[in-house]
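USER:
Make up one protein:

ASSISTANT:
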Amino acid sequence: MAHIRSRKHPAAQAIALAALAVPATLVAQQAEPARQPQESTLPEVKAKSSAENEFKADAVASPKFTQPLVDTPQTITVIKKEVMKQQAATSLSDALRNTPGITLQLGENGNTTTGDSIFMRGFDTTSSIFVDGIRDLGNISRDIFNIEQVEVVKGPSGSDNGRGASSGYVNLVSKVAGARAFGDAAIILGTDSRVRATADINRPLEIGIPGSAVRLNLMAQDYGAPGRDEVKSKRFGFAPSLVLGLGTPTRTTLNYLFVDQENRPDGGVSTYGLEGYIGAQGPAVDPSNYYGSLDDFDDVTLHMFTARIEHNLTPSTVLRNITRLGSTEQDYVLTGVNAVTFDAANPAASTVARSRQGRHQTNQILTNQTNLGTELTAGSVKHSLSTGFEFIYEKQNQANAQTLTDTTLPATLQQARANLYAPSVGDVFLIPPHKGAYTKGDTISAAIYAFDTMKLSERWLLNAGLRWEKFHTETNGSTFTAATATVPESLVQNPQLSLTDSLVSWKVGAVFKPTPDSSVYATASNSYQPPGGANFSLSSSTTNQASPTLEPQEGSNIEIGAKWDLFDGKLAATAAAYRSENKNELVSDGATPPTFSQIGKRRVDGIELGLVGQVMPALNLSAALACMDPQIIQGVPEGTGATQGGVIVYSPKVAFTSWATYKLPFGLTIGGGARYVDTVARSSNLVVTSNLPGTQAYWVADAMLAYQVTKAFGVQLNLYNLFDKEYVASVNNGGSRYIPGQPRNALVTAYLSF
């Protein structure tokens, strides 16, 4: 694969592919004889109100799901762009507030997370984020300016996408060109020095090819962070989309996405003195304290080129092929806070240790995926089939800088300790040097899959999916060891490691339909996460879960539920009870010295309730409740690190989210919502002896007012955290630092349609 260029140069690879693909597409389209327009996709069962329903979606975008949501035996939340617009959401993290049970984490003590690090249903889901059904690589914060809807699929789904988390996955659906001409622009101004502008323009084209259209999405942002004056988020992005052949048997879509970010990241605030902090002798620090450097940075460049071709072989049979070439490059330096030295005689002189981390990481993906969807009848059984094969190449190159601290390094490399209560942003810092430490990993995989929904009668459906894939992962790298008083620094080349294996993933479900608009279902599914599956990094240590000598972790899910489309399909009510497990985890027996074995198991029992859609013509509602019982069934049985019987980290037992809007007859829309998150543990240890063991429960309320001044112009006011609640948004694994929840703040948006 070609070398990915520096982040400061044009997207040569994507442009070259587009230049090659467009002429071939033009020739194919012009050579095709004129035909009567046919449906562009397989026929879908849609609610009567789907075109005007701002909150409720009737289906997901993937052709692997052959039925509408009401007949799909799985918990799936779809967050539409209209909801994200009403909330003035700008990132994936913002959008995911609309589904309960998802929490964010800050990362390891020496490896602070700067991107979308999410936990769902008790399991880390960071590496199970997809764009248009294709895995999205890189630990970055994702903007949603080019997103049509966000789909949250809960429960292990290895048959859908291959290796993945036991919790499920998140899929972002990109905007594409369509036949209707429209233009939308928006500018957002807010407290805390926030400015953002977006545009979405779609136009049909007259270029000699029937059904041609082009769409362009643009975004520019310069955001501060409420309550965190030094934290910045500066972004620019554009996403053109070209479609040829709309309304004809053959359709071609070419999409390109470019995003550039220049951020000043947040290393967090000391947790010292927060409620529950162990051993605190003084008060909590001001949540606006910034312990980092004004020279900290987090720069990201993303390129993504996608070509999709669809052809109707018959009115009920569609052949699809999608190719994607993508790259993400991230370069960051960040300052984190760690242990506190409290001065009881003079609390104002107390200090906190700091560390300076640096990383340069590139991720690349090249994939080609083919899908065939059809409907057929065998005897009295009607089949909705979706089958295909996939080839995927994924690569990650990570170069870690030497972490600089205030105590463990020679004096010339030590970082100044910060005053705990009054840190200075004027402190002078060294740039963490790159000493040659790196990890390179790549995975090549090939897969075949098949899904079938069998309609046995008007009341009974059976659903089954099966995926077989074979993969090969390779890792190589080097390890840097800093100098001590007696030993010089060293750089050691690590042995090259590899793993070749095959995975078989499945799901089955049965659906009973008491009425045409309702269903009761039972389903079971699994997924696998092989060693190195989350980050392409294998380990030579047999006590590391990434050792190629170990078996894959296996996730499983059993779920029963019910779905009901009310009010002529305008409002969806859902309920589900489930048990999700993850086994084959590597755990210690707690002895000295310890023995490790793959007997670890985590389990989450839970229920989820949801209500989304149009309650009345003027009232739209989205509300959901999640209750979980997250447990360590088999863990470390004894010793200071005992976890067996403990709780799973970052998993609130109760979570609730809601958003509602009401349209008044004179053009005014009022709206708002509330979110509740229960206490969250940051450690599964039965006994936690230091720092912050977990975070406290909290409620947060938001509000919105929108006024349509004219048909083409409107304004919107969003107020966040109405009651100015102080809370912990995320905490690091060690419990020494956290990201505060945003204090009360506001955004004003002006919308223009043309």
